[in-house]
Write a structure and sequence with these properties.
7-stranded antiparallel beta sheet; 77 residues; DUF4236; mainly beta; DUF4236 domain-containing protein
Length: 77
């Protein structure tokens, strides 16, 4: 069993600093819609609050100036 470390710090409403084992990221947006930037790339998430249903689109960092590789993920918790 693996342990996970994760801490979210609210800087002000709509802006959070996220700390985890994989690095630091920042998220911005209202409840139900977030844009996150971190070491794994950029992510756009939209959902219906209180339902556990959400959609996520990830833009991975490629290390080049070309268009980032896009990976679309659809999840339901």
């Amino acid at each position: 069993m693996a342990f996970r470390f994760w801490k979210r710090i609210t800087l002000f409403p709509g802006l959070t600093l996220n700390l985890s084992k994989s690095g630091i990221s920042i998220s911005a947006g209202p409840r139900g819609a977030k844009f996150t930037m971190g070491p794994k790339g950029k992510r756009l998430t939209a959902g219906i609050p209180g339902t556990g249903l959400f959609w996520t689109k990830t833009f991975r960092n490629t290390g080049t100036t070309d268009t980032p590789e896009e990976k679309e993920n659809e999840h339901a918790i």
